[in-house]
Design brief:
The structure holds two protein chains of two kinds. Chain A is 72% helix and 2% strand. Chain A is mostly helical. Chain A folds into two domains: 38 residues; 243 residues, MetI-like (MetI-like fold), CATH 1.10.3720.10. By secondary structure, chain B is mainly α. Chain B has two domains: 74 residues, no CATH class; 208 residues, MetI-like (MetI-like fold, Orthogonal Bundle). The chains are: A mainly alpha, B mainly alpha.
């Protein structure tokens, strides 16, 4: 009997190992190895002609810092840094506030909630590149024509104008980005015990009071998660610039995420640049990773339901 | 007093959502109407707003006189040129892109769903200490932002000699550390053990229990996750841009055309470009319209709820 049981346990263990081994192998190769390799790459140098790779110490990091802070391009990197923070800040404030309030409106089943839910989610379903192309050409033709018809001082372009291009790209990011967040918040709100809301209403609480004192504390963990997830993209977001302009985004719109993406794709077949690009990525990670953990802990400590 | 405040709250957000919906639908309507105009009508005669007009009389055309041929023309126009495979220049026609789209979206959605499902089944059904390690891997990978490891991935794919193949993207997408692993593990844990025990008594093997009892019981959730992945891969061009650049899907093809520096002036006309966008957008909107309640109703924090 004991032998049979032992045999059974072994079979189960064997089956368990069979199931998890392939996904773990994939993880080891495509996550752990790739990231360790990226780390190692940042400390090497590859000769463009011979292809020979040698240890380079901190040379790549020195080069990255020189480019960022002490070269002719420093001013450009300053703009990228400012743009990255602007995009993150604007997205954080507007998306957080409006997604929460839109979600609450849908949760309270306001007029037209079904159709609004569909429309808010629509940009998440439509391929981003198609939506972006439609937006790009609409603002350059129809929007300008309508604006000029209204009798204002005529404009001829929004995406090629130095003063208007960043705002036009930023508007695209802010306008189309609500769907998923609204649905997440709505999903979290729907999990709130209805008796809590009913009790608040019986006590005469207004919608805003209910939102502030009941709904927000109840879905706080969802809010934290989405804020933290947003933070991880602070240096990774290209603001859709690559989709809109490929390699030629106007200098005044570029973000650090776009810079990294452009460099990676531009030099995707030139190994001699990979170490420097890996060093840039590592520098960004060294800033974002601790920042993410600190912000997460900070927000978690302020959980009103904790 | 509260009723009045609640009314104002609902009226304000109804107005904002209505404005948002009108702007979004206008944008899509603009794309649709632009796609059925001739280039002369749109560009040379400046009809960027409104329905197609006759080029001579400038009267609004009847539907049968609209430029429906743009859609056929768009499939030719979407042919991608200037790509290289094994050192040879290639061009990829629309039909081939469509085939690549199915190969990419169906295949990646399958492996992306299968991997977390296998892992979730293993860790929820078998109680081994290693499960805790797997849970930590998932959480750490989800939280820790790593920026700029793409060059390292490209380097690895070259080493494995699978760069620029579908195998390269399938291998990357067969991963488990994401939200769906947590969701599926929770669902598997909710299945009563009696189902499995009854199968064991009937002499079923572990494989049979998993494939004939475990997976079929959560088929709805697996189907939904597959659908979400399918839509996401249908809309994705970035992965192929990085790791299989000579295998353009229709979205990647659209991206190449839209960002071709010589594109809009020499190869394409805006109405035909918009027709291309419509061709790409329609299938996902139909899919979304059919499954909208399932997709939107089940979204919680990055996952689905049963």
């Amino acid at each position: 009997m004991a032998t049979i049981k032992k045999k059974g346990i072994d079979k189960k263990l064997l089956f368990y190992i069979m199931l998890i081994s392939l996904p773990l192998l994939q993880y080891a190769i495509f996550y752990i190895y790739v990231n360790i390799n990226s780390f190692v790459l940042a400390f090497t140098s590859t000769d463009a002609l011979t292809g020979v790779t040698t240890f380079a110490g901190f040379d790549n990091f020195i080069e990255v810092f020189r480019r960022f802070f002490a070269s002719e391009d420093s001013y450009q990197f300053g703009i990228m840094f400012k743009n990255s923070l602007t995009v993150y800040g604007a997205s954080l404030v507007l998306h957080l506030a409006f997604s929460l309030l839109f979600g609450f409106y849908l949760y309270k089943k306001g007029l037209g909630h079904g159709i609004f839910k569909f429309i808010l989610f629509l940009p998440n379903i439509i391929p981003g590149i198609a939506l972006l192309s439609i937006y790009k050409y609409a603002v350059e033709t129809a929007v300008i024509d309508v604006y000029n018809m209204l009798g204002f001082e005529p404009i001829y372009t929004l995406l090629n104008g130095k003063d208007t291009v960043f705002g036009t790209v930023l508007f695209h990011n802010l306008f189309f980005g609500y769907g998923t967040q609204v649905m997440m918040y709505l999903g979290a709100m729907n999990k709130i015990n209805p008796s809590i809301s009913e009790a608040a209403q019986l006590d005469g609480a207004s919608y805003l009071r209910e939102f502030w004192s009941i709904v927000l504390p109840c879905i706080y963990s969802t809010v934290i998660t989405l804020v933290v997830v947003g933070l991880t993209g602070i240096f990774a977001s290209d603001m859709g610039l690559y989709s809109m302009f490929a390699m030629n985004a106007p200098a005044e719109t570029r973000t650090l995420g776009y810079y990294l993406q452009r460099e990676t794709l531009f030099y995707s077949t030139d190994k001699s640049h990979w170490p420097r690009i890996a060093a840039v990525g590592l520098c960004f990670t060294l800033v974002v990773a601790p920042l993410t953990i600190v912000v997460k802990r900070f927000l978690e400590k302020r959980d009103p339901m904790a | 007093m509260n009723n009045k405040r609640d009314f104002i709250f609902k009226a304000v957000f109804f107005s904002i959502l209505l404005l948002y919906s009108i702007l979004l639908l206008l944008l899509l309507f603009w794309a649709l109407t632009s796609s059925i105009k001739t280039n002369v009508d749109f560009a040379e005669l400046g009809n960027s707003i409104g329905l197609p007009k006759d080029e001579n009389t400038r009267e609004i055309l009847a539907p049968w006189a609209w430029a429906w041929g743009n859609f056929k023309e768009a499939t030719k126009y979407l042919t991608v040129t200037g790509l290289y495979r094994n050192g040879r220049a290639i061009s990829v026609p629309f039909g081939t892109q469509l085939w690549y789209t199915f190969v990419y979206a169906f295949g990646c959605a399958a492996v992306s769903t299968l991997c977390p499902a296998i892992m979730a089944y293993a860790t929820s059904k078998f109680k081994y200490g290693f499960n805790a390690v797997i849970d930590v891997i998932v959480i750490v990978t989800m939280i820790l932002p790593i920026v700029g490891s793409s060059v390292s991935m490209i380097s690895l794919l070259h080493q494995l000699q699978i760069y620029d193949t579908f195998l390269a993207v399938y291998a990357q997408k067969f991963n488990f550390p994401h939200m769906y692993y947590l969701v599926l593990a929770a669902i598997f844990r909710g299945i009563p053990k009696d189902y499995y025990e009854a199968a064991y008594i009937d002499g079923a093997s572990e494989w049979q229990v998993m494939l004939e009892i475990g997976f079929p019981l959560i088929l709805n959730s697996l189907g939904l996750i597959y659908l979400l992945f399918f839509i996401s891969y249908w809309n994705d061009y970035n992965t192929l841009l990085y790791y299989a650049p000579s295998h353009p899907t229709i979205i990647y093809g659209l991206f190449r055309i839209m960002t071709d520096p010589t594109g809009s002036s020499t190869r394409g006309e805006l109405p035909i470009q918009m027709a291309g966008c419509i061709i790409i957008v329609v299938p996902v909107i139909i899919l979304f319209a059919i499954f909208k309640d399932k997709v939107m109703g089940n979204l919680t924090i990055g996952g689905v709820k049963e």
